[in-house]
Amino acid sequence: MVLDAVRPKVLATRFIPNASPDLARAYGLSPEHASLALVTADQDDSLYVALDEATKQAPVDVVFGRSFYAGSAHASGPLSGEALGVLAAPSPDDVREGLAACLRCLAEDACFYTADEAGRLLVFPHVVHAIGPYLAAESGLPAGSPLAYLIAPPLEAVVGLDAALKAADVRLVKSFAPPTPTNFAGGYLTGPLEQVEAAAQAFAAAVVELARAPREA
């Protein structure tokens, strides 16, 4: 039961083939961002990985990606989930292609995992072999860099990041210190791919071990 995949749920998708000028200005969109694809899901970090995958598979940009306060268990509505992502491109065909890639990633790749037998404690030890433009901008790394995207609840994330940084030849390029909108924490690590993978494994192992013995003697 430990480290079982918990697949994200896609809650709503919509296309806007030709966004109104006022909406475009309100969201700071460029003139070439005429067509939009919107998606909500109950896992924000999985959605961000999937949005990045869309930028690698289609000529789209991520123009909006935000987590909602308190997480999906306290969402504002049944279709809100934990985050909203918006893809934009010059044509409707482009955003449809991008959204299809995003949904494939959510169904087959990016997800949280259980860190305890009860399935109540979740961990996100995800490795992106080569980041696209979106995560490149978010991390400050060049596109194509390997990335360990590591997320867990606050205490677990601190212990897990320490273990990951000690276990592999990686460096921390961005930290998500608590509190965050969803009250999880973590960071981005980079280095050679095999080291990034080792760091992610060490992060997950540290969170699992903490779940087994939360109160150290």
CATH superfamily of the largest domain: BMC (bacterial microcompartment) domain
| The top level CATH class name of the largest domain | Alpha Beta
Rough shape?
globular
Order of helices and strands: EEHEHEEHEEHEHEEH
Strand order of the largest sheet: 1-6-7-8-10-9
Strand segment tally: 10
What are the segments in which pLDDT stays under 50 over at least 5 consecutive residues? Answer: none
Q: How would a textbook summarize the main sheet?
A: 6 strands, antiparallel
Structural class of the secondary elements? alpha+beta
Gyration radius, in Å: 17 Å
In short:
The chain has 217 residues and is of the alpha+beta class. It is 36% helix and 27% strand.
Description:
This protein has 217 residues and is of the alpha+beta class. The protein has 2 domains: 8-110, Alpha-Beta Plaits; 115-212, 2-Layer Sandwich (Alpha-Beta Plaits). The chain has 6 helices and 10 strands. The protein has helices at residues 21-26, 44-57, 92-108, 133-139, 154-167, 193-212, and strands at 5-6, 10-16, 35-41, 61-67, 83-89, 112-114, 122-128, 147-152, 171-176, 185-190. The protein has a 6-stranded antiparallel β-sheet with strand order 1-6-7-8-10-9, sandwiched between helices. A 4-stranded antiparallel β-sheet has the order 2-3-5-4, with helices on one face. Strand 6 (112-114) and strand 7 (122-128) form a beta hairpin. The protein is globular and about 60 Å long. The chain starts with a strand and ends in a 5-residue tail after the last helix. 44% of the residues are buried.
